[in-house]
Amino acid sequence: MKLYKVGKEGRVTIPKDIRTRLGLEAGDHVVITVSENRIILEPIMKTLLDLRGSVEVSGPQDINTIRKQVMADSVGKRVRKG
User: Fold this and answer.
1) DSSP secondary structure code for residue 2 in this structure
2) pLDDT by residue (tens digit) across 64-81?
3) How many C-alpha atoms does 77 have within 13 Å on its Cβ side?
4) DSSP 5-69
5) Within 13 A of 19's CA, how many CA atoms are on the CB side?
6) What range does the domain containing 35 cover?
């Protein structure tokens, strides 16, 4: 186990070997939850493009509205689990 320092703005750098192992890149999203005295970071690996075609729709959809709903649903599920 390594010790890491929290910067003055509350930032902690995820070490390169961990980012590589999880496939995290700059700009990726993670969900942060707290469970008792632990902070849990979970990468969100699926995007809307990964899911395209998996649900039938009746007509054109607004991608920005769908993206916001998917992100809110994903965060809500992870918070309820924590």
Assistant:
1) -
2) 888 888 888 887 776 666
3) 7
4) PPPTTS--PPPHHHHHHHT--TT--EEEEEETTEEEEEE----HHHHTTSS--SS---HHHHHHH
5) 11
6) 16-81
Q: Is residue 7 part of a domain?
A: no
Q: Which two tokens stand for residue 25?
A: 């890149």
**Is residue 9 one of the residues assigned to a domain?**
no
Helix, strand or coil, per DSSP, at residue 4: coil
pTM: 0.51
What's the Cα-to-Cα distance from 79 to each of 10, 44, 47, 72, 73, rounded to whole Å?
21, 13, 19, 10, 10
Collapsing DSSP to helix, strand or coil, 82 comes out as coil
